[in-house]
Amino acid sequence: MKFEVYKDKKGEFRWRLRHSNGNILATASEGYKAKASAMKCIENVQASSSASVVELK
């Protein structure tokens, strides 16, 4: 898997997590004006990878 950082049509930075088979597993829910902000969001996602699973009813 890999994170991809790119600019959207508005010129804002976004990220997506792509599986090795090409499927997109997760995306940024918002655009960031600074690339550093998008990178910080990726760091936060990586750090929370030990999050628990909660079933909603």
Structure write-up:
The protein is α+β, with helices and mostly antiparallel strands and 57 residues long. Helix content is 23%, strand content 28%. It contains one helix and three strands. A three-stranded antiparallel beta sheet has the order 1-2-3, with helices on one face. It is globular and about 35 Å long. The N and C termini lie far apart (30 Å). The mean pLDDT is 93.
What is this entry, summarized?
With 57 residues, the protein is an alpha+beta fold.
Q: Beta-sheet strand percentage?
A: 25-35%
> Order of strands across the widest beta sheet?
1-2-3
Helix content: 10-25%
Kindly report how far apart the N and C termini lie: 30 Å
Order of helices and strands: EEEH
Describe the largest sheet: 3 strands, antiparallel
What is the strand and helix layout of this fold?
Elements: E1 2-7, E2 13-18, E3 24-27, H1 35-47
Antiparallel strand pairs: 1-2, 2-3
Question: Which structural traits does this protein have?
Answer:
57 residues; alpha+beta; 1 helix; 28% strand
